[in-house]
# Entry
Amino acid sequence: MISRELAIFAYLPDEVSEVPAGLLSLSEEGAISIGASFVYGSRYLARPNAIEIDPVSLSLREKHELVGTELYPAPGLPYFGAIRDAAPDAWGRRVIEAKRKVPLNSLPESEYLLAAGSNRVGALDVRLDINLPSTQGMPSDVHSLEYLIEAAQRIEEGLPIPTRLEAFFDAGTALGGARPKATVIDDQGKLWMAKFPSKSDGYNIPLVETSTLRLAQLAGIRIPELKDPIILAKGINVMLIERFDRVGAAKTMTRKHFISALTLLGCPEADSPRKNYADIADAMRKYGAAPMLAANLKELFSRMVFNILVTNDDDHLRNHGMLWVPQHQAWELSPLYDVVPKPTHATERFLHLGIGQQGRLATLDNALSCYARFGLTRDGAIEVIKQVWSIVREWKGCFEEFGVSGSEIDKISSAFRHARDIGGKKIGLF
Ligand SMILES: Nc1ncnc2c1ncn2[C@@H]1O[C@H](COP(=O)(O)OP(=O)(O)OP(=O)(O)O)[C@@H](O)[C@H]1O
Ligand SMILES: [Mg+2]
# Structure
């Protein structure tokens, strides 16, 4: 077993440069993580605008007791959830492995953590030593998407990356998720996440994902800024979504601290399918910023209803996120991301997360069954369902306006459900 110490840095609210936050010790046996501990730096703890790294196991609520105290991850976790969120996920790992020419998942976690570089999601950075500077390279230019996509395709196919495409290694490692993607910078110095098509896609996912997020916005759900998908040679579409964990652009850009709902619930990834939307609501009640709580809980309920209506069954705990709100020293629901309709002919459908008293069954009456956990009255919850349904029922017209062709609409149409078929009558919608 090897024990490794890494320096954790934090970009504090409204500050463009980062400060050391503490020391992370990781115990590893090859690619397996055994355990971890963390000690906050005393100068960091003295800062009035220090951000708490992880609400469950590295809380700053009792700051004065933390000086020199060794802290441990939540039970069952080999390391801290918030630091796991700052590590690359499946796609970023493939990029790092391609760069180093090593087999799948063969590196120790500390290597993946370090390799993600300073453009990683959220406001944390991880370095070998407290005296080392940031490894923040310039993200790739938005005008170089043709090269980035070529590199992404080669990585998906397990092909080597020629020298002329090596810049992709910096752009592609920092982000989570499994689909091919990269961080790019536009002419104003603002950061965007570019999501590419994948070789196994059955339809135009970049365009459909962009359109689904826009549909959600019409239903009253907060989404990050989106550009119209960029169309490259051979009709390849690339989705461009604003990095919602960054504020401003260029030299004045600051960062927002991000954690996934997996971290908010303090659980290992394998537990995600056994968790419910109401569990996220309960954790938001514990760690959420009080002034936003009622609106955030209602929005979480809307997102669950939206996912039911569009069959987005990839709604796992990493696909829900929270951002740190400095004024309230607590967390709020991040804008929506990664919502994609899944075409299927199954009449009985399930989401990834539990919905209500009938478990993961994707129906509106099941959604209504736990309304109180979302701080809603029964009538209030029905109003939300009505509101979301009134928009989703018009999806075809909206998608046409967003530029989705008739043939693409046909390919995804089975994902969209009619409220009447999924309990709408039982809850009085018809
Ligand atoms: N607009 C954004 N700004 C900042 N971070 C984001 C944004 N969208 C997503 N993220 C972060 O990047 C991760 C990957 O993004 P996303 O979920 O869209 O990718 P994906 O590859 O489709 O994921 P999955 O593996 O769930 O299919 C998310 O889990 C979240 O941590
Ligand atoms: Mg995702």
About this structure: The pocket of adenosine-5'-triphosphate (ligand 1) is lined by residues 91, 121, 175-179, 193, 224, 241-245, 260, 314, 318-319, 321, 337-338 (CB under 6 Å). The first helix runs from residue 42 to 45. Residues 64 and 294 are 30 Å apart (CA to CA). The chain has three domains: 2-127, 140-242, 257-422.
